[in-house]
């Protein structure tokens, strides 16, 4: 495997569509997929009340991972960040994050002419979260791709 530069890690985060948020919930590890956006060097996402939000409130140190896989070659890149998640309560920052989420996911949200959700604004139970990046690491399958680094290997 090859290590990715911090700049490349940040680009993988910018380009990613789905990430995996790792939290501690009731003393146990819990990982959930999330849609996210990068705003001001932070991983930002929208969630609702429930296990994920409660876990973050009780133990804010989290990790987040996103990956890119080229299915035609098997080449992959993965980035992991750690930091203290926090709720976004400032109205201006919340508007910026919602706007960034809408802009990023607009191509897959549907339209008034096609089925699917169109209004992705913040509604009452929604919670916006941000993860300031304290630590970031990234790896790729490497330039000397080997069967042992291929995803799904036996």
Structure description:
By secondary structure, this protein is α+β, with helices and mostly antiparallel strands. It is 21% helix and 37% strand. The chain is built from three helices and ten strands; from the N terminus they run βαββββαβββαββ. It has helices spanning 6-15, 51-58, 91-105, and strands at 2-3, 19-25, 28-34, 37-39, 42-47, 61-69, 76-84, 86-87, 127-132, 135-140. The strands form two sheets. It has a six-stranded antiparallel β-sheet with strand order 1-10-7-6-2-3, covered by helices on one side. β4 and β5 form a beta hairpin. The longest helix has 15 residues, at 91-105. The two termini are 17 Å apart.
**Mean pLDDT over all positions:** 87
Strand content: 35-45%
Given helix and strand content, the structural type is alpha+beta
Shape annotation: globular
Q: Helicity range of the residues? A: 10-25%
Helix count equals 3
**Total strand count, please?**
10
Order of helices and strands: EHEEEEHEEEHEE
Q: Evaluate the radius of gyration.
A: 17 Å
Low-confidence parts, pLDDT < 50 over ≥5 residues? none
The neighbouring-strand order within the major sheet is 1-10-7-6-2-3
Distance from first to last alpha carbon:
17 Å
Main sheet properties: 6 strands, antiparallel
């Amino acid at each position: 495997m090859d290590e990715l530069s911090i700049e490349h890690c940040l680009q993988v985060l910018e380009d990613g569509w789905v990430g995996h948020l790792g939290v501690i919930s009731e003393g146990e590890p819990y990982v959930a997929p999330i849609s996210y956006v990068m705003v001001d060097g932070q991983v930002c996402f929208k969630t609702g009340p429930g296990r994920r939000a409660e876990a973050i409130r009780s133990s804010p140190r989290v990790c987040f991972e996103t990956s890119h896989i080229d299915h035609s070659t098997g080449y992959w890149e993965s980035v992991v960040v750690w930091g203290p998640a926090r709720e976004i309560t400032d109205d201006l920052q919340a508007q910026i994050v919602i706007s960034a989420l809408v802009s990023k996911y607009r191509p897959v949200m549907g339209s008034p002419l096609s089925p699917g959700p169109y209004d992705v604004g913040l509604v009452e139970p929604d919670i916006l979260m941000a993860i300031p990046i304290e630590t970031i690491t990234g790896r790729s399958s490497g330039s000397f791709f080997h069967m042992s680094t291929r995803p799904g290997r036996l």
